[in-house]
Amino acid sequence: MEYILNIETATKNCSVALAKEGKTILCKEIAEEGYSHAERLHVFIEEIIAEAGITVNDLSAIAVSQGPGSYTGLRIGVSAAKGLSYALGIPLIAVDTLKTLASRVSVSNGLIIPMIDARRMEVYSAIFTPNLESKRSILAEIITEDSFSELEETIYFVGDCSEKCKAVLTKENFIFLEEIKYPSAKEMSLLSFEKFKKGDTVDVAYFEPYYLKDFMITTSKK
Fold first, then answer.
1. Rg of the Cα atoms in the chain
2. Which domains does the chain have, with CATH numbers?
3. Which residues pair with 123 in a beta bridge?
4. pLDDT tens track for 101-120
5. How far apart are CA 64 and CA 58, in angstroms?
6. How far apart are alpha carbons 42 and 14 in whole angstroms?
7. Gcp-like domain: which residues (predicted)?
8. pLDDT tens digits for 138-188?
9. CA 91 to chain centre
10. Whose CA is closest to 188, among 6, 16, 66?
11. pTM of the model
C-alpha cells in the first residue's frame, strides 16, 4: 500500500491528510482568522500517523501545496515537508494550490476559476475545465469589472475572495460557490498519487514554494 502524507498550508486552512492509494483515509484541518500553522501542523501530522496505526516509516512520499498563497503559510508547510522527505529518504511531491482548490468543485460544464486572496482587489487565479485541465496559467492580477469578461461559458468562482469580488464580477454567467473558501489536503490525495505514479517529484534540496509576487495591473475599459 502506498501511503502519502499531504500538507496544505497555503491559506488560512492548516490541513493535513493521509492517503492510501490516492484515497483520503484521515484528515485534520482548521481555518482560523489568525494563522496557527506553526502550532497546529506538526500536531496534526503526529495525530494522523498515530490514529492510522502506522509509523512515518510506512510513508511512501510527502506531498505539499506549492502555492501560490500566503508567504508564511507556504514556508511553514514546505519546511515541514522537506524535513520529513529528507529524514525519511522518500520523494517530495509538489501540488498546485489552485488546482487543489478547483478540484473541490463538482460540475459537468463551464469553467472553474479558483482565486486566493492577495489583499485589496488582488488575487491569485487560474482557469480549469471541470476535469481539471488547465485553460489558463496562474496569474496574479487585480480584479476589475472587466476581468474574465471575454468568457461566455458558465464560470464557477471558488476561494476566499468571493465577498470582495462578487460585487465587481456581476455577469449573468458568473456563479460564486461561496461555501468553498480554502484548498484542503483531502483534495490533494488523488492529485499527489497521480504524480507519484508518474515519478513527478521535486528536488528536496532546491524546491521552493511558488510565491508569485508580481501582479498584473489591468486598465478599465471605461
1. 17
2. 3-97+183-198 (3.30.420.40), 98-176 (3.30.420.40)
3. 117, 141
4. 999 999 999 999 999 998 88
5. 18
6. 10
7. 36-139
8. 999 999 999 999 999 999 999 999 989 999 999 999 999 999 999 999 999
9. 19
10. 6
11. 0.92
CA-based diameter of the chain, in Å? 61
| Residue 219 scores a pLDDT above 90 | no
Amino acid identity, position 183: P
CB 114 within 8 A of CB 125: yes
**Is residue 50 classed exposed, middle or buried when 0-12, 13-18 and 19+ CB atoms within 10 A define those classes?**
exposed
- Backbone φ and ψ of 62, nearest 5°: -115, 130
pLDDT tens string 36-47: 899 999 999 999
Length in residues, the chain: 222
Grid coordinates of 23: 484515497
Give the pLDDT confidence score for residue 222 in this predicted structure: 44
